[in-house]
Specification:
419 residues, alpha+beta, Peroxisomal Thiolase, Chain A, domain 1, 9-stranded mixed β-sheet, two-stranded antiparallel ribbon, 35% helix, globular, binds coenzyme A
Length: 419
């Protein structure tokens, strides 16, 4: 079985690429789904320094392009990045909620491991801002179990609020303790995000303008500036509604070593699925399936949490950054919040978390998020960080934990620099 490495990657600018007419409510697209996708694909192929003809197959990760933009059947559009070179190549779209492009990456890896393909392309994309908030909330709720959740008015902030309440109750935290932990995570991601030139909330953005770089700054905001969204989660606990795309070229490690001086390999992967409806689960204080995915990936890579030198985790809501940090065993169960409060996981920690700014600050174009995590870590690992770098040099071993739905679709990858 061939081992698989990253040959190139590209992340578009993340943001809200629309103009809103305040009087009429009309929304005009300023950077389309098609432009984002094409830019990411061409950027990744150029970064890989290959002829696009060398791509054998293409996977597109996107959660709900039909609802967000009316465009389903998105796989074939990938051909348009290089119509002559790509025409007739196999393409398919993969959906796994907010882990859609990690699912696309896993499928690409299987394609290479099987020996059928040598070099493949994965692109993740989501164009969310053509809809107003109510439309976005409705589209995202499709990733819940519709009959008992979405159809009953349950939203994603609401689902993760259940995790926040479960965590608070299980570990006996006061409201103040929980708030301190969650705002510390938000502030860390805002600090990291302003160093990331591709971030949605980058330099000069809302977090920067309002100086939201400490837990106190967020706690002391007036209610109207940080309203409750789903108790106990407030606006600044929620990830952003973002437009963006990211793409990767993957190939065999053998070929990558011939083509590039710095090579990053998928040393281990984990993929598990939790039951879709939260009512069918008991442990609303931990990512039970996420932990199993971590175990799979760590076992395959032959590593433990102590070996990780950076991680990108799924902070769709600040509470989930705590759950992911514990799932990766970077913190003991119930201790992640205090670890963040104590200043761990910052850029000069042994293992910084979300150097990119995470979903809270880099942004969360849901179908692009998994691919983006990989591009940002890849660039860190080959010594070309986009924005903030780990203080102690380029990391050699890193991990992603990308979560689709309410802890349902879990993808973990361990990346290792092998050359
Ligand atoms: N975090 C911080 N600030 C945010 C924000 C967020 N998530 N979302 C919007 N804002 C800011 C905007 O920049 C704007 O600031 P300004 O007044 O200074 O310009 C202000 O809040 C109002 O923006 P608006 O777009 O009207 O906010 P909203 O109330 O419509 O949306 C949420 C807020 C929380 C509902 C929306 O961001 C959301 O749904 N986030 C979660 C997305 C999600 O569930 N993803 C899937 C996860 S599994």
């Amino acid at each position: 079985m061939s081992s698989v490495s990253i040959l190139g990657g590209y992340n578009t600018q993340f943001g809200s690429f629309v103009q809103r007419n305040k009087e009429t409510g009309e929304i005009t697209d300023t950077k389309s789904l098609y432009e984002l996708m094409t830019e990411a694909i061409q950027g990744a192929v150029q970064d890989a320094q290959i002829d696009p003809k060398e791509i054998d197959a293409i996977w597109v990760g996107s959660f709900a392009p039909g609802l967000f933009t009316n465009q389903d059947h998105l796989g074939p559009f990938a051909l348009e990045a290089y119509p002559e070179a790509f025409r007739f190549k196999p393409t398919q779209r993969v959906e796994g909620a907010c882990a859609s492009s990690s699912m696309a990456i896993l499928n690409g890896i299987y394609g290479i491991e099987s020996g059928r393909y040598k070099t493949i392309l994965v692109v993740g994309v989501e164009k969310m801002n053509l809809l107003k908030t109510a439309g976005v909330t409705h589209a995202l709720a499709g990733a819940s179990f519709w009959p008992t959740e979405g159809a009953q008015g349950m939203t994603f902030p609401g689902l993760f609020a259940e995790y926040a309440k479960g965590y608070q109750k299980h570990y006996g935290l006061s409201d103040e303790q929980l708030q301190k932990m969650l705002t510390t995570v938000a502030a860390l991601n805002y600090r990291n995000g302003i160093e990331n030139p591709l971030a949605h909330f980058g330099k000069g953005g809302p977090a920067d303008r309002n100086g939201l770089f400490t837990s106190e700054a967020i706690i002391n905001m007036p209610d109207e500036k940080n309203p409750m969204v789903a108790e106990p989660l407030r606006l600044h606990d929620c990830s952003l509604v973002t437009d963006g795309a990211a793409a990767l070229v993957l190939t065999t490690t053998e070929l990558a070593k011939k083509k590039k001086s710095a090579v990053v390999e998928f040393a281990g992967i984990g993929h598990t699925t939790e039951r879709l409806a939260t009512k069918d689960r008991k442990n609303m204080h931990e990512l039970v399936a996420g932990k199993q995915a971590v175990n799979q990936a760590f076992t395959e890579a032959g590593i433990g949490a102590k070996d990780l030198q950076a991680a990108e985790v799924h902070d769709c809501f600040t509470i989930n950054q705590l759950l992911c940090t514990e799932a990766l065993s970077l913190s003991q169960d119930g201790k992640a919040g205090q670890d963040y409060v104590d200043g761990r996981f910052v850029a000069d920690d042994h293992c910084p978390v979300n150097l990119s700014g995470g979903l809270k600050s880099k942004g969360h174009p849901v179908g692009a998020t998994g691919a983006s995590m990989h591009v940002l870590l890849y660039k860190q690992m080959i010594g070309q960080p986009i924005g903030l770098a780990r203080k102690a040099g380029s990391p050699e071993v890193t991990a992603t934990l990308n979560v689709g739905g309410s802890g349902v679709t879990n993808s973990v990858t361990v990346l290792k620099r092998v050359q």
